[in-house]
Amino acid sequence: MPQRFDALNPSVNQTIQLRITSDLGALDRVLNWFDTLDRPQVPRVVWIQCLSVLAEIFTNAVRHAHVDRPVSTPIELEAELTATSLTLRLWDYGDPFDLCAAVQRRAAAQPDPLEGAIEQLSGGGRGLQILDRVADRLSYDPQPDGRNLLEFVKYFEPVPLPLEPARQPGES
What we know:
Layout: E1 14-21, H1 27-34, H2 44-65, E2 74-81, E3 85-92, H3 99-109, H4 127-134, E4 137-142, E5 148-155
Antiparallel strand pairs: 1-2, 2-3, 3-5, 4-5
């Protein structure tokens, strides 16, 4: 019987973790770490959006949350891939802030800054708005251990994988 991608198959669930220093020079390592996920079911545009979000949240943590902290201050990352969603989590040691209020302030200061494709936007302080626009769920909450947790969730319709050719009797 030919094999098809089963969107409910829990065997596609993957979780990877990374603990890294607060150094912008580590961005390549962060992106390479993320690229280790086996992702044939993720639509290309969703993958690129999530890769961009990962770069944004990591650089924001280094530039803003850890601006007055030593480079050795750790940032912890987790990526969780299921058949129909990709979740990014980042823990930082910065001062807590109200993410929803920050997004609303930025939107009020820059009306309609996100016209056009997400992939064409860059820089200019629009990172939070891009996160908000791309995310299906987005939160930033202080944790009991003194860290903050940013959680980004993106849902997607899985890309069907090609059927495996049926084996003929006698083939191995």
